[in-house]
Amino acid sequence: MKQFVRVAWVVMRKDLTVEMRSREIVYTTVFFAASCVLVFAFALVREGRPLEDAAAGILWISIAFAGTLGLGRTFERERHTETLRALMLAPSDRPAIYVGKLLGILALLAVVEAVLVPMIGVLFHAPFMRSPVWLLVLLFTGTLGFASVGTLFAAMLVRARSRDVLLPVLLYPITIPVIIAGVRGTAAILQATPDEPMARFWAALLLFFDVVFVTLSLWTFEPLMTE
Amino acid sequence: MREAIEMKRGLVTVVVLLVLAVGALAMAGQPPATPAAQEGFVPVNSLPQAEQLPAAPLLIAAYAFVWVALMMYVWFLWRRMTRVERELAELNRRVQRR
Amino acid sequence: MSRVFAPLAFVVMALFAMAPIIVSHAPYEQTMGLVQKVFYYHVPSAMLMFISAFVCGIASAVFLFKRSAAADRVAVAAGELVVLFGIIVLVTGPLWARKAWGVWWEWDARLTSSLLLWMIFLAYLLVRRYGGPGSEKLAGAMALFGMANVPFVYVSVNYWRTIHPKTSVLMTLGPGMRSAFWFCTVSFGLLYVLLLTLRRRLEDQQAQVERLYLTLEE
């Protein structure tokens, strides 16, 4: 068990260290997420003004798009330097490598969300800070659900053809429940009086999803990555 | 090594079931308000007369589509199967000759 | 091949030819009238779409964990049938809905889950076709995750407006309707088994062809 945690930690630290040198993926992904928000602000208008009710949806769509981009770029880097094969050759627990990569992606998305939430809050007059705890719970469980499936698929696709378009093709249908639950939960807490029971229901569903899909990913990572 | 993996899987399964049970309790504790779903078939006779569509073309279109879709798939299967069988026979002959 | 399956194929075709006759003799539904008869093809197709999704998911799991190539061949056959029966459901449904509800589409639990399931298995076929070498495993993971996803999609979409009739309607069918319905269900079921077996056989034969090419090269 300790070996597992150590390997995951080492993999994550490796990713973060490499990223900190150039900060390329972080900056570009955050900027991409911000541009998404702008596009939505101009696309979803009523009487010439942005739709304020759309804040929850825009938040989660931007997370999904930025996440897909970040996943693709992170694993492209691995493919380019052939480090994924080196990782697979190492005599370590394969699922630990998966967890390490997952933690790296979660860190990236945490930075993205730290920028997105205030930005959307300001641009769309969305009172995110009214229930900060529920917001954090929803963001964490939702992002974990999305990232868990995303990390597995992105790792699988490293050696595939047409990997750029196949990642969204595979990822979005599977993560629709995450989007639904995230948006509905966030919309519940953004109401005039935050609807906490509703938020709790959606957070519970997201937790379910996370447990099932992280487990499935852990089980299938090894058979998928080996020839 | 094998046993360790099996034990780990077993442990993970137990943890998963526990968390699912807790999650189920959390969800059950809150029955969200839902508008009632329709029971059985419900009529749409509140539409104005002008909006009422003739049903026959829709029904015929539906059945026709089902038949066409199934026929196309069967035909596609048939074509591929005859082609593969021909190839298989050819290859078998070549292997026999060796 | 045709010698082996001719009797079964004949039975299936005969059943299918009978179906419209049986359906036309079934009583009219009280409120929806003629258009409700789409139900006799729509519902069995929907059931088979879901069953096929599970067959594909389970076969993919066996393929991934036991490395059984035979399971993969069953999975691809079942995956194609999900898409086929899915198209049938998603076209006959709106044709019925246009008359019954006034709109072509509604975002309720059953429709949304069906559309999503269909798209997941369409993605399954896309990955197998365009993913390059090794894409069978990727597709297998997709099928497995897709199958696991079905309850989540259903629950999450269910807490929105639901306009779709509930499944309990099957129990309330009158006798004339019930026999027509079960007749169609059985015909579709047999057709499904036939198509699955044929498609799997095609995969088996293609695998054999590849093996022979390899032996010839030696």
Question: What does it look like?
Answer:
Chain A has one domain. Chain A is 82% helix and 2% strand. Chain A is built from nine helices and two strands; from the N terminus they run ααββααααααα. A two-stranded antiparallel ribbon of chain A has the order 1-2. In chain A, helix 6 crosses helix 7. Chain A is globular and about 60 Å long. Chain B folds into two domains: 30 residues; 45 residues. Chain B starts with a helix and ends with a helix. Chain C has 218 residues and is an all-alpha fold. Chain C has six helices and no strands. Chain C is globular and about 70 Å long. Chains in contact: A-B, A-C, B-C. At the B-C interface, helix 2 of B face helix 2, helix 3 and helix 6 of C.
Give a nutshell description of this structure.
The complex is a heterotrimer of chains A (227), B (98) and C (218). By secondary structure, chain A is an all-alpha fold. Chain A is 82% helix and 2% strand.
Q: Report the average pLDDT across residues of chain A.
A: 89
**Total domains of chain C, how many?**
1
How many E strands of chain A?
A: 2
Terminal CA distance of chain A: 26 Å
Rg of chain C, rounded, reads: 20 Å
Task: Tag the structure with descriptive keywords.
heterotrimer; A: 227 residues; mainly alpha; two-stranded antiparallel sheet; 9 helices; C: 218 residues; globular
Outline the fold blueprint.
The complex is a heterotrimer of chains A (227), B (98) and C (218).
Chain A: H1 2-22, H2 24-43, E1 45-46, E2 49-50, H3 55-80, H4 83-89, H5 94-123, H6 132-157, H7 163-174, H8 176-189, H9 196-225
Antiparallel strand pairs in A: 1-2
Helix pairs in contact in A: 1-5, 2-3, 2-5, 3-5, 3-6, 3-8, 5-6, 5-9, 6-7, 6-8, 6-9, 8-9
Chain B: H1 2-28, H2 55-97
Chain C: H1 2-25, H2 39-66, H3 69-100, H4 109-130, H5 135-158, H6 175-217
